[in-house]
Amino acid sequence: MKKTRKKILGFVGLVLVVAMTVLAIMLPGAEASALETNPVTDEVKVRVVGSTPLISLIYPEDSSVLVDPAQHFQFEYENIETTTTEIYYTDSEGAEHIYTIDTVDPNFYPGTSEEYPLDLSGTGYGYGNYRITTRGVGYDGVTSEDTISFSYYPVYGEIIDDNVGTFNLGLFYNANSEDLALILVNVYDANGNLVTALSPKTINLPGAEVDLEFAKNNLPSGAYTVEIIGLDSEGNELSVPYTLDLNYEEDKKEGSEDSENGSNNNATGAPDTGFFWGGTNITGVDFATTGLIVFSAIVVLAVVLVVRNKREKTALNV
């Protein structure tokens, strides 16, 4: 009897070991869960430092486009004693000009902000790209700095609406400009060819901010470039063109399978994890849970078979 129990326990233990080994391999993160830390040797070190100088440019916003020459730059600071600002201006010819503005202020107090005027139409400035770097020196001599970039154009645009059949281009410019008289808009395909069905378009100024509506006219899907140019009264370009990328997908025809189901090929809407079986998405957790149930059933079945076999032998001996 004791030998039989030992055999049963040994068989059950073997099955459990195999089951747990398989589950350990299947379950994600099993190796990571085995990692332990030693609380005796682990240390936490805390280093106390003085007040850290901080400086942050808050205007203009990084990567913004400006059309008004009357501007300013503004920054916030904390634990700063003096600051210096460098303005990097790249003109339409590609030449870079550097201007330094000394913004030393003996009355700086922590947690305040400063604002300084910046006339983009002044001497040395003009249409083009700008980069501003402001450096602050703390009371202990430690420095902090921040950098933003922006552009100054006579006119720029944004795609403000994309409807079936048309898309709208919003144009932004300085209505008080004395130089800007015309706006020219061109659309080019990915090969650099002018899309004559959409351009050129010319807008006479002065006027308020305007929107242009472009008819797609069965325009093929693809990547396009919208070119916006500001001209003076004599037709001269005031700056390099402002360009805008347009990725256009041709409107789907009504009643088509793509328009009904959308572009997602996964019609079930299930996440693209695990695998599909019979239209059901099976994840790793589901698979591991099912495996545990199956192996538990195997253990119970093994015990039943061994006990039944023992009873049959006993009956025969009798």
Shape call? flat
Number of domains: 3
Percentage of residues in strands: 35-45%
Q: Outline the biggest β-sheet.
A: 5 strands, mixed
CATH architecture of the largest domain: Sandwich
Secondary-structure element string? HHEEEEEEEEEEEEEEEHEEH
Judged by helices, strands and strand pairing, the structural class is: alpha+beta
Helix coverage percent: 10-25%
**Poorly predicted ranges (pLDDT <50, ≥5 residues)?**
28-50, 252-282
CATH class of the largest domain: Mainly Beta
Mean pLDDT: 73
Description:
With 318 residues, the protein is of the alpha+beta class. It has 4 helices and 17 strands. The strands form 5 sheets. A 5-stranded mixed β-sheet has the order 2-8-7-4-5, with no helix packed on it. A hairpin with a 3-residue loop joins strand 9 (155-162) and strand 10 (166-173).
